[in-house]
Specification:
globular; 507 residues; single chain; 18 helices; two-stranded parallel sheet; mainly alpha
């Protein structure tokens, strides 16, 4: 049977109305997020309790790391568009990520800032950063390639995919947090590496489920020899290894790196605007401007949302009554609460969007973004109110659950909807670049999150004045901006030209 015939047969096989490839990507991304969120849950404590960094420095390093894991997808998206294809990019990215996690476990060393072990830690972070650049944007592109642009299953598919992300996000902090805080840091980081290996095995084993999607655009060119004597493909892998060394050299200059990131983000947007204005027709140009509007909201949302792993993590450790059923729950385990809510609510949101779509009542993507910003701001205000009610006592844990609940609802209005919109609004030869820019904007948001965390101060348990003041201000700011986005959302929706997508697909 010819390959095209085999793909046609496989394409007819669905689970719960979706291609089986969606569930392969679901589980592969689940294990990658297990490794990422498992590490993230204990990273701020590893910096402050193992390396003994002050909070100002720890927040800065945390923000630099979480920024870089979202900036490198711009390069990874470009390389996949031009040379590797998304599937190979995802595979090599997973290898670099697994190596990085195991390196952290191996280079733990004694407590304190011993240069040997600290540089080993930086090198491991650099490997994870490069690997995420290859994997993060391109696995979302693979999801988009399984569906036609006018397929109404796209938003529900990305919600299902997002639930897989958060299954990993739920399990990672529980497993790695318990092992890291109770058994030893190397156990926690080692478990994160095992999770990434599990995702790689599944991705290779079930490759046929992808129906040939995500292959290199020019396989012959990829095998051609370069000046290095290696094939073009292996030259890219060598350059990635050199990129690890380069990031290792610069990661210690976290603050300068963050501002350079903001400059790079601005230049990338300028490049996309230049290509949009100079090469695209009116309809595609309008869609790209709509995509850029949504991308512009990304730094604000993630700057607020990503307090989770930094200032909110420290606040939970020091200022929240964590005693439940006679056990003081380690603070890192609360990093799984958001993902638990995602798992519970994502199917409901997927059903809700489908239900509203059939009745022509579904909010547009820009309107969902506005709703998400309002909910994000409300979460901070609820926590501020709970801490104020507690007075001199520790904040009741119920208010931590409430901020996670509201932020989860905000995330479901924002992130899966944004991923779907990027693949729908982009032209085919820019989809990897645009998806990478989406994650680049998230990188800027993570650096901004580090600056916000530093503004919250570093008081001991019970000293919550400064952090609550910051949370109150950013909460109200998010609500106001969300309201403005809701007001302009009808105009942005018109720029998307959704009514023409079906006819274009048929053509």
């Amino acid at each position: 049977m010819a390959i095209s015939d085999m793909n046609a047969v496989e394409a007819g096989k669905t689970w719960l109305g979706h291609p089986r490839g969606l569930y392969l990507l679901f589980f592969a991304e689940m294990w990658e997020r297990f490794s990422y969120y498992g590490m993230r849950a204990i990273l701020i404590f590893y910096l402050t309790k193992h390396f003994l960094f002050g909070e100002d420095k720890a927040y800065l390093l945390y923000g630099a790391y979480t920024s870089l894991v979202y900036i490198t997808p711009v390069i990874g998206g470009y390389l996949a568009d031009r040379f590797l294809g998304p599937r190979k990019a995802v595979l090599v990215g997973g290898v670099f990520i697994a190596i990085g996690h195991f390196l952290i476990a191996i280079t733990e060393g004694p407590g304190g800032q011993d240069p040997l072990f600290l540089n080993g830690f930086y090198f491991a972070l650099a490997s994870i950063i490069v690997g995420t650049g290859f994997l993060k944007a391109n696995i979302s592109v693979l999801v988009g390639e399984l569906y036609a642009r006018d397929d109404h299953r796209r938003d529900p598919a990305f919600s299902i995919f997002y639930m897989g992300i958060n299954m990993g996000g739920m399990l990672g902090p529980i497993v790695c947090g318990l092992l890291g805080e109770l058994w030893g840091w190397s156990w926690g980081f080692g478990a994160a590496g095992v999770g990434m290996l599990a995702g790689l095995v599944m991705f290779v084993w079930l490759k046929p489920w992808l129906l040939g999607k995500g292959e290199p655009p020019a396989p012959q060119q990829l095998r051609a020899r370069t000046a290095t004597g290696l094939s073009q493909e292996w030259t890219i892998y060598l350059a990635a290894a050199l990129g690890v060394a380069a990031i290792w050299l610069v990661i210690r200059y976290a603050e300068l790196l963050g501002y350079a990131l903001l400059g790079f983000a601005a230049l990338t947007v300028v490049y996309i605007v230049w290509r949009t204005v100079g090469t695209l027709g009116r309809i595609d140009r309008d869609r790209m401007f709509a995509a850029l509007f949504l991308i512009a909201l990304n730094p604000l949302f993630w700057g607020l949302f990503e307090q989770t792993g930094s200032s909110l993590n420290i606040f939970t450790d020091r200022n929240v009554d964590r005693a439940m059923l006679g056990w003081e729950v380690p603070a890192s385990l609360f990093q799984s609460v958001n993902s638990v809510f995602i798992i519970l609510l994502a199917p409901l949101f997927a059903v809700l969007w489908t239900f509203l779509d059939k009745r022509r009542l579904e909010p547009s993507s820009p309107a969902k973004f506005g709703i998400g910003l309002v909910l994000c701001g409300a979460g901070f205000l609820v926590l501020v109110a709970g801490a104020a009610m507690a007075g001199e006592n520790l904040t009741p844990v119920i208010f931590v659950f409430l901020i996670y609940l509201l932020h989860t609802m905000a995330e479901l209005c924002f992130s899966p909807v944004g991923l779907s919109a990027m693949t729908r609004l982009s032209v085919s030869n820019m989809v990897g670049l645009v998806m990478g820019t989406w994650f680049l904007a998230m990188a800027a948001g993570n650096f901004i999150a580090g600056l916000i965390a530093r503004a919250t101060g570093s008081g001991e348990a019970g000293d919550v004045t400064q952090v609550l003041d910051v949370y109150s201000r950013i909460g109200w700011f998010a609500i106001v901006v969300g309201g403005l986005v809701l007001l302009v959302s009808p105009y942005i929706k018109r720029l998307m030209h959704l009514d023409l997508i079906g006819a274009e697909e048929k053509a």
